[in-house]
Amino acid sequence: MIYPIAGLILGLVVGFYLPISVPVVYAPYVSISILAALDSVLGGIRAMEEGNFDTLIFVSGFFINTLMAGFLAYFGDRLGIQLYLAAIFAFGVRIFQNLAIIRRNMIQKLVSKRSEKEEENSAS
Amino acid sequence: MIHPFLNLLIKFREEKPNMKDASKTQAHIAISVICFILGMLLVAQFRSVQVSGAAISIQRAQELSTQLKTVTEERDMYKKELLELRARLAEYEDAASKTSSLTEAMKKELEKVRMLAGLTPGTGPGIVVTLDDSNLPRQPGEDANLFLIHDEDLLKVINELFAAGAEAISVNGQRIIANSEVRCVGPTIIINSVKLAPPFIIQAIGDPDTLESALKMRGGVIESLQVFGIQVNIKKQEKIDMPAYAGAIQFKYFKPAKAGEVQQ
Description:
The structure holds 2 protein chains of 2 kinds.
Chain A: H1 2-17, H2 27-50, H3 55-79, H4 83-123
Chain B: H1 3-15, H2 20-52, H3 58-97, H4 101-117, E1 122-132, H5 151-163, E2 168-171, E3 174-175, E4 182-185, E5 188-191, E6 194-196, E7 200-205, H6 208-216, H7 221-226, E8 231-242
Antiparallel strand pairs in B: 1-7, 1-8, 2-3, 2-7, 4-5, 5-6
Helix pairs in contact in B: 3-4
């Protein structure tokens, strides 16, 4: 859990010092992309904790989801359909679900560790 | 281009069942790298959202509107004061001109110069041109800008009138003087720092026939405006009341050369 947070902080710091910015016209599409990226990362963390993490699926999912989310939002704007609403809904629901599952897993781990320790203590 | 990368990933994947620890560090590395990219993306997005700026807060808007109100009131007060002072100045001039023939001559000279500068109201024959936005039904996809009156159109008409010998011109009560500006400001046109909206009523004093024919010239200003359906109405009048320039005249930077030391 420490590595992803460290990576995120490093990314924020590096991004802060690099002169990168999104053109204002594309900002709405990039925000959808970021939502997709966040969803991918949380999904990856969840999979890792559940033990069925697959690097290929995770990495390809991150890039393709991110690009496709931005592209679909843009495409929807061209068509006059507010597709980005669908993306916000779909990704938003999944992000919160994954967050809940990650939280539960972590609490379970903590609780089981503590009970193990207690058992050890009582045994000795 | 992507193939080597994919092959690498597939290789990693195939090694997975044998080495559980290795796959776990691999997962950590993958997530960290992706988080790193996500962080950079986030910063880029923050920056662009900051640039476009969040909506102006209501408090700020209220502050600005009250400020505008007080400034407008102040301006109106000063305008009144200016008119009073001008009237008083005229009184002084009258009184002074009675004392000697020299001062009388000076007063006449002053009046002439004032007339030239557009500081005196007056009357005379001329024409009244009314311009209004087009009322033609607009086809979908056509540029709405073509059917509105722009600063350039007004400038062209004013220019044509001056060229035809107009001696004084006003637009919606704003006298055109030597440093009057005609400029687009959003949906309105600003002249002498006053915002004007259509219809524009242009008064010009001069020979009515000459002025009218100058505008109605074939291929002239009016014809080009009428192509886009802009409504033009020209009326000759025997007597036009021309307002004076009401704003203040200040020379902050310009200093006239003294008589006798004009550089050639």
